[in-house]
Amino acid sequence: MPLPHEVKLIDVGPRDGLQNEKQPVPSHIKIELVHRLQAAGLREIEVTSYVSPKWVPQMADNHAVMAGIQRQGGVRYSVLTPNLKGFEAAVADRPDEIVVFGAASEAFSQKNINCSIAESIERFAPVVQAARAAGIAVRGAMSCTVGCPYEGDIAPERVGYLAGLMKGIGVERVDVADTIGVGTPRKVQAAFEATLKHFTIDQVSGHFHDTYGQALANTLAALELGVWNFQSSVAGLGGCPYAKGATGNLATEDLVFLLNGMGIETGIDLNRLVDAGVFISDFLERKPNSRAATAILNKRSA
Ligand code: HMG
Ligand code: MG
Q1: Alpha-carbon distance 158 to 160, whole Å?
Q2: Burial call 99-113: b when 16+ CB within 10 Å, e when fewer
Q3: 159/201 Cα distance (integer angstroms)
Q4: Which residues pair with 79 in a beta bridge?
Q5: How far apart are the first and last CA of the chain?
Q6: Residue 100 and residue 138: Cα distance in Å, rounded?
Q7: Rounded to the nearest whole angstrom, what is the distance from the C-alpha of residue 95 to the centroid of ligand 2?
Q8: Nearest to residue 209, comparing CAs of 179, 189, 234?
Q9: Rounded CA separation 193/266 (Å)
């Protein structure tokens, strides 16, 4: 299988990255982060989520963030909506895409969204229907596709089962997520192969947390299957508050460095991306969690 010539990235930093931060991040900082990401060439940005503020207080300012963004033509702004209540709140803010989020593991589904996999699909179905009727694109995130913090290894059949359910309710594309970063290349390929029984190669994306340093290897394994959509987080921010031990997403800077080196087009300016990562890291009073960003910053100051 020839490698893709082009890769599309969704930066999930403003959502997946910041949802896990304990200290409040003001809306204007989130908005500025989105502006810097789009200026760096990101064409898809996961901005926020419409979830219970009791569960995820950091995302409680979803309306303010969506209202404050100066939208750029050609950029797709996506948001998470776990149920109709979330969708109804989101629709007023005109997202380009909504994301329903389920799990291949029963235990994680319960911990994360307080219902079983079957119940989650029942809740998602009217959301998907309403979004499609309103002309809003629909993505489905599939958590724990290789491992679960509560159940351990997850068999590819369970991923295929969830992908089939997502397809059945009209989800247009899905994310194969390694929520706790325990995946290794062959396991990740098996999760994709199970998903590809229900979705085409253009409808699947990789979402790898980097807990064990495997995310770049897993990306290459997915590229080898022809996958050309990936999610990553500027400065390696990220983690799920309901997935104990999950660390940040694969850093977008590291991913872009890999893809640049392989001659795969992303349309992203790595230097401007590094600056966006420094902006949010400075606010959080830490260094970017990205080897590529660190190397570039060291070179600049040498
Ligand atoms: P629940 O408690 O079962 O909901 O939560 P409920 O329907 O029983 O309602 C309880 C209360 O929540 C009510 O308020 C509702 O109004 C309110 P009260 O009457 O008590 O004041 N409520 C809401 N408020 C705001 N927005 C809503 C909403 N729905 C109900 N949409 C619920 C169910 C899904 C809401 C809850 O479990 C929740 O918010 N979970 C958040 C989970 C989350 O955001 N996790 C992180 C994102 S997923 C992720 O990071 C993984 C991913 O990156 C992929 C990967 O890496 O694996 C995507
Ligand atoms: Mg995630």
Answers
A1: 5
A2: bbbbbbbbebbbbbb
A3: 16
A4: 48, 98
A5: 41
A6: 8
A7: 19
A8: 179
A9: 24
What tokens appear for 79 in the block? Answer: 């948001």
Which of the listed residues 51, 244, 249 should we mutate to test ligand 1's pocket, taking the one with most ligand atoms within 8 A of CB?
51
- How would you classify the pairing of strands 137-143 and 97-103? parallel
Catalytic residue list contains 148: no
- Nearest C-alpha neighbor of 270 from the set 284, 289, 251, 285: 251
Residue nearest to atom 53 of ligand 1 (CA): 16
d(CA 115, CA 123): 9
Residue 110 CB less than 6 A away from ligand 1: no
pLDDT score of 239? 72
Is ligand 1 within 6 A of the CB of residue 211? no
Q: Is 56's C-beta closer than 6 angstroms to any atom of ligand 1?
A: yes
- Which tokens sit at 25? 């991040």
Q: Where are the alpha helices (DSSP H) in the chain?
A: 18-19, 27-39, 62-68, 84-91, 106-113, 117-133, 156-168, 185-195, 215-225, 252-261, 270-284, 291-301
pLDDT, greater one: 253 or 245: 253
DSSP 204: E
CA of 241 to the centre of ligand 2 (A): 10
Q: Which two tokens mark 169? A: 């309710």
Q: What is the pLDDT of residues 42-66, one digit of tens each?
A: 999 999 999 999 999 999 999 999 9
Dihedral over Cα of 253, 76, 115, 128: its sign: negative
Residue 241 main-chain phi, psi, to 5 deg = -60, -20
pLDDT tens string 90-145:
999 999 999 999 999 999 999 999 999 999 999 999 999 999 999 999 999 999 99
pLDDT tens-digit map of 268-278: 999 999 999 99
Whole-angstrom Cα distance, residue 216 to residue 201?
A: 19
Ligand 1 near 179 CB (within 6 A) = yes
